[in-house]
Amino acid sequence: MFRQKNGEKKIVCSFPEGNGVDHKDQRPFAANYIVTFDDAELFMRKQNKLIQVGLHCCSDHKDFLNSLKEKSVSPTDKDDSDDTDSQCHSGDNDYITPGPYKSKPEQKVSSEVGKAISQLAKAAGIPRTGLHGAFSSLADETKRKKVEGFGAIMGSVASYMAPDAPEALIQAFCEKRYHATNSSLTLEELLKDTAEWFYVANDYREKTEVLAQIAMRFRYEQIREFIPDLTLFRFTAARKLALRRYDQWKQPVMKTIKVRYDKEYINLFVDFITSPFVMVDLPFGTKKAKLSSGEKFEIPNTLRKHHKREIINMFHKYLIEMDRSDVKLSYSTMNKILDICVASQKISMQYVDYFVANGDEAFDSLFEIMDSLDKSGLVEETWKKDLRQLFLEAKNYLKTDYRMNVKINSSCPDHCIVYSLSDPTNSNFCAIDCNELTENGHQHQSKCDRCSILPNAISKIVEKIDLILSENENDATIQEQLSDFKEMIAKNEKAIEEQKQHYLRSVYSDTVRSDIIDNLKEGEAFVTMDYIMKFIPTKNLQTQRDWYAQKGNSWHCSHIFARIGGKIVQHSIIHILGFEKQDARVVTTIVRDLLTRLKSWNIHTVSFRADNASCYHNTELLVNLFFMAGTIKINVKRFSFSEAQNGKSSADTEAARLKRIIRNWIDSGHNVETIFDMFNALQSGTIPLCALTVVVAKVVGKNFEAKNTLTGISKISDVTFDYEKKELRYWQYFNIGEGQIMKVSDYLNLALNAKLEILQTTNHDPNETGYLFWRPLHLTANEVEKSEIEQISIDARNLNENEMDLGEQLLIADQDTFFSCPVDGCQKSFIKFGNLQRHFLIGKHQFPSDKCTLNDYAIKEYARKIEGITPKLPELLKLTENISGNDDMCVKKGWAIKKPASRTTYTADMKKFLDGEFKAYQDQGKRIDPKDVQKKMAEIKNSERKTRFKPTERLSSMQIGRYFVSKLNKLRGAENAAENEGDTH
User: Fold this and answer.
1) What is the DSSP pairing of strand 692-700 with strand 567-578?
2) In terms of domain of life, where is this protein from (predicted)?
3) At what angle do helices 140-161 and 111-123 cross, to 10 degrees?
4) For 470-483, what is each residue's pLDDT tens digit?
5) Tens of pLDDT, residues 439-463
6) What is the pLDDT of residue 166?
7) What is the gyration radius of the CA atoms in the chain, in angstroms?
8) Which of 386, 472, 756, 858 could bond to 589 as cystine, CB 3.0-4.6 Å?
9) How many C-beta atoms lie closer than 10 Å to residue 711's C-beta?
10) Average pLDDT for residues 7-24, to the nearest whole number?
């Protein structure tokens, strides 16, 4: 390493930083010492790093190396270590040696060889090659000369043996020595493991696959020492398989021609990949793009319908059709542009939020209406494109920026949570006017142009349809078709409005949950309860007959956040209940057992959260919680219900952890058929799951004898408990309004006498050594080594949330991989997966506004096409510029309150149609598809050639599916009854 001094380059101390003395970027010129072989070997053994022999260093670093010698291990320790020769590595400064160094025994050299070496050294001009005594006892300068002489002799020999490339020969020798000097113990362990995998393999193919991993590195005789019955034929087959894979993995040699890129060609390709044929809709959420300078930017995210190779092939065909053979873009260039212009790959989604699914279907229906108008020649194509763009903008705004704009208090009524969730019909659930607030008082005078895009687009399409109707009064076909369209538009608008309301309620529900966790004090807990999907009994080797007609075992998860030692930690309690019903009686007994355990763990205050299932959302559970708190001497502070279809987060995450361990237990050759098998599976593994209590139980005792339900119980989202006044206070939406009072004395007849009989349980305790009872939020591993538990607990206490959150440190941290939050639209990223898990469990998501500030040309153009700021897309602001003047579009107070679901009324004509479809499917032996029936219901005509069902009478696929399930159950019940009657005769 050199530095400039007086215009000349001079050698300075080149010792690696972070070891010994820190020069702080001012390396001294006094580099009078050289790193010897012994120094390098000792440094590798002590620091697990390799430094180059002959490296110049200063006196301070020489003293540092000498201090390592003083601390060196005793000869006894060296004798117990593994054999490891000195190794030659090129450019690997972080090499970790397999084990402590052990000197090889002295090797004698014959007199003839010694004379030959002396003559060679003399001819090469190398003095004093011989040595009398131990090399380790030589002075440092003498050792250095010996090293230089050895290098010169090697150079001479290499020049003789490979005169065209002596350096390549020396390098190959060093690499060969690197592989040859691996510990024999390590190779033995590798071959033993391979032999074990070989014998575990089930068939010939698997055994050959195992052997192929090592067949190219070891001889047949070496492997036979560990696999005695290995035949030469099988060994040869394994080598052939390894060679075939090697040939398949080799990169093809292709002739490359570098051509300077043309911006026109880049623009053409970016236009193509942002077209509707490749990209779905407009941006939703954001992704991070990295420029050539290393700087990261957020660009709007899109969803691509095709893989990269398909897109490139489509572009080639597109160029041929456009007769653009002049466009020269290589495959690698287009592939690189697709990589830097990041987008999500299209996948299918199941069991999604039905509010979101219905809203998306409503937008699709609006697009179909516009396409029908265009195909019929009733509208201009430019009108359809502009209006379609408006609907796309409205759709993507709801999915991205709207959630970010929603606030507790806002001057825009579409964004103000307090205004949107205040019930004007009930003063107890209605907050005071926002302009009367002492803090954050405001008037609702602002209007959001982007929130107004949807109603404006709806009004435009309705006005257009009205105009067409007035121009075609005598055309009965057009009159009927467009009248249906108007009814469908109204129905779709309602579905989209419900989606918007759901987003606002979800934001508030998540905020309430995060506030509860943040405000936990020492000794307080927050419990999320949820039933896990019933576990179907499973065998390791299961026949098809065993799989059908099985009854699942019920199990319940209670996931606990608690503040212990000043930090948030977690624990889970699993109740395995067999075939017990999932009702209020069972949940009440589970909660009693849960509170008893929390009390024994020094938890004094508990808050609960659950979904809106009837087993939780009932008066019986709330009243008995009040009674149990007094009996167990624990403070039940609050019960919160999540927004419908908004998930339970932590309980679902914990369920995935449990299902995985059961799956592993089954794969290892065990059956899980009973509740006790489930218990054993959850305790399986060399290291059991940490932070878990498993209980096998059954409920004994009578059900609730009285029925006394609180009016409007289904609308309640939050309940607090007042033990002094012996009352419960509840809200539609927490702290919006004063809430209503429920006197416990009015519901004394709901006390439950049933209890949980424990059949089997784990006995872990918070004070137990050797088991991690409270798991830190940042801990990702499900299994924890006992020796690491104490250190993990210390790390958890020292964890700072600011260290976890990458936030503004993205441009500072130099990391190759970031873990991004999987929640759609959340921009949070983390260096460690454990920190991502902590963020996901707490639920503090950050939704950014779509923005794009890029320097690289391709990324810049890509973002411009997506955001719609190029002249090719309609100017959305011009299309919506008059919206702010329309007072009719201002939302009313309480507009986001969830409306009670209306019951589906099946008319006689509906039943006749559905029964006919059911019979047709049954006769054909086909599986019923509600989607096809829904489509047919919209298209079927009556005897007068008119639409049989009006849009308001048409059922959704979900409603159709429910009808068919009910009919199928009745049919099966009748068949079973007939069989039972036949058996009695």
Assistant:
1) parallel
2) Eukaryota
3) 90
4) 988 888 888 888 88
5) 878 888 888 888 889 999 999 999 9
6) 80
7) 37
8) 756
9) 9
10) 76
Q: Is the per-residue pLDDT at 877 higher than 70?
A: no
Give the mean model confidence (pLDDT) for residues 16-26.
75
What is the H or E stretch that residue 721 is in?
A: strand 718-722
Write the single-letter amino acid at 460.
Answer: K
As to burial, measured by CB atoms within 10 angstroms (0-12 exposed, 13-18 middle, 19+ buried), residue 256 is exposed
DSSP string, 345-411: EP----S--HHHHHHHHHHHHHHHHHHHHHHTTSS-HHHHHHHHHHHHHHHHHHHTHHHHH-BSS-S
For residues 756 and 587, the answer to whether their CB atoms sit within 8 Å is no
Sorted by sequence, the CB contacts under 8 Å of residue 271 that are 6+ apart come out as 865, 872
Strand partners, 757: 698
Residue 676's pLDDT band (boundaries 50, 70, 90)?
very high
Question: Each residue of 815-826: pLDDT tens digit?
Answer: 333 445 656 556
Q: Which is it for the CA torsion 967, 968, 972, 973, positive or negative?
A: negative
- The residue whose two tokens read 């010492």 is 33
β-pair type (303-304, 344-345) = parallel
Q: Look at residues 635, 688, 716 and name the one whose alpha carbon lies nearest to residue 897.
A: 716
Q: Considering only residues 51 and 108, tell me which one the structure prediction assigns the higher pLDDT.
A: 51
Q: How many CB atoms lie within 10 A of CB 326?
A: 9
Cα separation, 193 vs 214, whole angstroms: 11
Q: What is the mean pLDDT of residues 925-931?
A: 80
Strand (E) or helix (H) holding 524: strand 524-535
Count Cβ atoms below 10 Å from residue 421 Cβ, excluding itself. Answer: 27
β-strand pairing of 605-610 with 524-535: parallel
What is the C-alpha to C-alpha distance for residues 68 and 743, in angstroms, rounded to an integer? 76
Amino acid symbol at 243 = L
Confidence check: pLDDT of 881 > 70: no
pLDDT band at 58 (very low <50, low <70, confident <90, very high): confident
Residue 156 has pLDDT above 50, yes or no: yes
**DSSP state at residue 809:** G
The closest alpha carbon to 980, from 550, 969, 972, belongs to: 972
Give the span between the Cα atoms of 126 and 481, in whole angstroms: 103
Q: How confident is the model at residue 253 (pLDDT cuts 50, 70, 90)?
A: low
State mean pLDDT over 93-97.
34
Residue 816, CB half-sphere, CA atoms under 13 Å: how many? 0
Q: Please state, in angstroms and rounded to a whole number, the distance separating the CA atoms of residues 306 and 291.
A: 24
| Residue 758 predicted with pLDDT over 90 | yes
**What's the confidence (pLDDT) of residue 142?**
79
Kindly state the tokens that stand for 87: 């190794």
What is the C-alpha separation between 621 and 609, in angstroms, rounded? Answer: 13
Please measure the distance between the N-terminal and C-terminal CA atoms of the chain and give it in whole angstroms: 101
A 10 A CB-CB count for 82 gives 14
Tokens of 559: 């996931």
Per the CB < 8 A criterion, the answer to whether 57 and 35 are in contact is yes
Minimal CA–CA distance to 849: which of 825, 876, 821? Answer: 825
Are residues 299 and 342 in contact, defined by beta-carbon separation less than 8 angstroms?
Answer: yes
Across the chain, mean pLDDT equals 76
The amino acid sitting at 432 is I
- Does pTM surpass 0.85? no
Residue 335 CA: distances (Å) to CA of 271, 286, 313? 15, 21, 11
DSSP-assigned letter for residue 685: S
In this structure, what are the phi and psi dihedrals at residue 128, rounded to the nearest 5 degrees?
55, 65
Contact residues for 145 (Cβ-Cβ < 8 A; gap 6+): 128
